[in-house]
Amino acid sequence: MRRRLGHHRQHGKQGGVGGRGLSLKLLIAVFVALLICTLSLLFSATITATDGSSAPSEINVEKLWESANSGGWRPSSSPRTDWPSPPKETNGYLRVRCNGGLNQQRSAICNAVLAARIMNATLVLPELDANSFWHDDSGFHGIYDVEHFIQSLRFDVRIVERIPEIRKNGKTKKIKAFQLRPPRDAPISWYTTYALKKMKEHGAIYLTPFSHRLAEEIDNPEYQRLRCRVNYHALIFKPDIMKLSESIVDKLRAHGHFMAIHLRFEMDMLAFAGCFDIFSPAEQKILKKYRMENFAKKTLVYKERRAIGKCPLTPEEVGLLLRAMGFRQFHQDIPSSCEELAANAQGLIGSAVDYMVCLLSDIFMPTYDGPSNFANNLLGHRLYYGFRTNIRPDRKGLAPVFIAREEGQTAGFEEAVRRVMLKTNFGGPHKRVSPESFYTNSWPECFCQMETQNPADKCPSENVMQILHSQLESENMDLEIYNQSDSIGARDSLYIGSFRFMLIGLKSYAPRLAGISEQTQMEPRSLHGDNLAWRALPFMLRPAGPKHASSCKRRGDERSAQSETW
């Protein structure tokens, strides 16, 4: 399995499942498998139920396809106070190695830019770890638009592609970066004292690993807005990735709205969460072995974990939840154009396409947004990208409802589900409360209001870019410093990778998702054979008929225009 939770593992453990055998075969099956599902959706526009009070509880499904209420807020990561351009002379060079998967690396890149700004350092283009699951060495050049990244951050930090050589006493000399291991969630003070001291001593430092190595909660809104500028404006995927993503979205939008569901029902997550009991003894043995080899030793009781919302929803529970909310009947339709991607879709680039399609979906639903970097980053990006609707199941609130149903108490099940879901946030602005990540919710730092009594929330002036340009020119900075190493124009060849949503037991659950209206008992999940070869883009749900296509197209165009500015 792809290990997106490497920071929880015991040090010294190897990344594989151990023993190879069955697990290796399952990994191979995952690499070659791809399923892109589009499910025609017939839904009732409004579901009404009584909850014992005089006021009815209802979920207007029609409105869920629209953006959430913004409350007058709009995304804005422009500086709102004095923000000097980076000076000509810096304190040295900062190298970082971003470990983990694509989305963990994305957060690390944001932190690297902020660390460089804090230390007045020249940032060397971040290194992307050869992912331990995909064994993908695409690197920064293979995933992101490097030229756009460097130029868009020119008001914030100096960036070079590699540490340049220096001439001393008539000889060319390389600067060797001093290697440091930053503490997890290190405070700013660590960078401005210890790390900066080493940088000045050696001329360059190399921070590795660099996943979760800078505290997320920082009491400086401008620093947080810099993170947003990196995450939502500077980190743009290569044109080939964007073109492929847009092609898939266009095909889905041709049939109307669509929903992307992130089913995090995978071996690594189940092992990490300790959700074993629903599997057979043989399958439990595999999961326990995986946990022992990859995570710290800890006694976990399934019933307790599920009761507090620590287990991912099963595919069956996802279907029951959607049915209760008003999404009624589904049928499976696999576009031939998407089937063609199966042969060439692998690695980090496949993850990038996943990311973009989920970002552009009308509704995004993660079934487990705990330590999932993919889900958390997407939720934050969709919030910034115009308060796009998200369905975030309250697993703790839903647990007793699902348990009661399993025990035969089916009366009032759907009404109980709706009552729980009506208490959740569907994508609008809301206060960030721990343990919610800044990358999941950057409100209010990266948002503003045109009409407000609070100066801190007021949108910056429209000429903020002109001001920053003027500051840059006044520093007499030569923009070619950004290209003093190799030419940015040289691009790696595109390598399309497989999509990332491997689902345990999905094969036995796909019919259930296709016939959600049927009331059936829970089927056994399987870790074996072809069942592990089912993957999704993820599931794409859309209402039947093309009548929504034109409005979706306009909606997407408007949002794209909004996202182009700070």
Automatic annotation (TrEMBL):
Organism: Salix koriyanagi
Location within or outside the cell: Membrane
Pfam families xref list: O-FucT
Gene Ontology MF term list: glycosyltransferase activity
UniProt biased composition (Polar residues): 69-80
Membrane topology: Single-pass type II membrane protein
Biased composition (Basic and acidic residues): 554-566
Pathway: Glycan metabolism
InterPro entries from the UniProt entry: FucosylTrfase_pln (IPR024709), GDP-Fuc_O-FucTrfase (IPR019378)
Any single GO CC term annotated in Swiss-Prot or TrEMBL for this entry: endosome
Name of the protein this chain belongs to: O-fucosyltransferase family protein
TM annotation in the entry: 21-43
Record-level GO BP terms: fucose metabolic process
Record family assignment: Belongs to the glycosyltransferase GT106 family.
Lineage: Eukaryota, Viridiplantae, Streptophyta, Embryophyta, Tracheophyta
Superkingdom of origin: Eukaryota
